[in-house]
What we know:
Blueprint: H1 4-41, H2 45-56, H3 86-92, H4 98-106, H5 111-116, H6 124-140, H7 150-172, H8 178-201, H9 219-225, H10 230-233, H11 248-255, H12 267-277, H13 298-304, H14 310-313, H15 330-339, H16 354-362, H17 378-381
Helix pairs in contact: 2-6, 3-6, 4-6, 7-8, 11-12
Amino acid sequence: MFKSSQLKYLKHFALAFFLSSLIISVSAGITQSEDTLSAAAKPSPAEQLIRGERLFYGLVYVDNPVNCAGCHNTAYSDTLNWNPDAIEISRKYLDKNAEDLSGVLMDPSGEKMAQVHNGFKLAPQDVEMIKLFMDSLVVKGLKQSKPVINNLLIFILASFLFLFSLTDLIIFKMVGKKWIHYIILLGTVTCISYFLAIGAMAIGHSPNYQPDQPVKFSHKVHAGQNGTDCIYCHSYAPYSKVAGIPPENVCLNCHLIVRNGTRSGAFEIAKIISHYDSLKPIEWVRVYNLPDHVFFSHAQHAGAGGIACQKCHGPVEEMDRISLNQELTMGWCINCHRTTNVNFKENIFYSQYRNLAARIKSGEITGATVADIGGTECMKCHY
């Protein structure tokens, strides 16, 4: 049996042990609760991605929102946007961290960006979530516009009515009045023939074709505003089959000094310099492209013929984005050859047409068209 003094110390020890255990349990519970709350407060990657998208579109902050999509396209556009597309910026900063992106957003070095980004306020965690959304754009790409299928629906409906009316007229004979079938057949045959003819003529023919280019180059600025001659960039046109695409060193004749555009800033010009430094040519998308069985020479038209570029390419000095201005059909070429007069005066090339040159000189005829010198012969273009 324990003595009273020993029992007293034993009770004190048990009480101390109980209190210490209680304190440890409470502390552990509080720490676990804090960890649980911290984990609950931190959003998941999927939630961060959604919030980053909302931040990019300026849908989070009511006061002083930053709408990145207002300047940087997230979908394809038919008009030229001087600001770089969102996917272009995303690709550039894909291998960089959020701090690099934050430095460009909050303290840009370019004059144009400094003007546009003035007053931007984004927390570091906001920039991280925006960066997460921009990284996802590299995978998803720009939003594609939905195709117009109205003509296809009409064609399918007309085909269905044609088959129904034809089978009912010959086999089932549910409709007693045959003239109804005749009207339906006439209308549907006309409709189907029209769509088939339009579709056949459209093969290899894309009017108003206006593709996106790797660099946002504006003919309106260069050829129109700055007055740059077409031959300065397309120097092959007077003596070659093709007009030629200017290499990067031609661009650097001006942009070695001009590094910031008044509209596009430094982003687009930096692309040219990057391609030049890496010895990698810019992959421009061709707009005017004739079939392989057609021969066309710029030297014949722009050189010997003295035809202005605008005759075939339209008013390029008024275009930001080059589009397919003409039909480029054989009928269009033939009509031009039948109506365009040839300049025989002081033109060495046409002096070989001695009979026509003599008749023009004597005043017997006032002029000659391209058709008069064989411009409508099949072998001139198809040989």
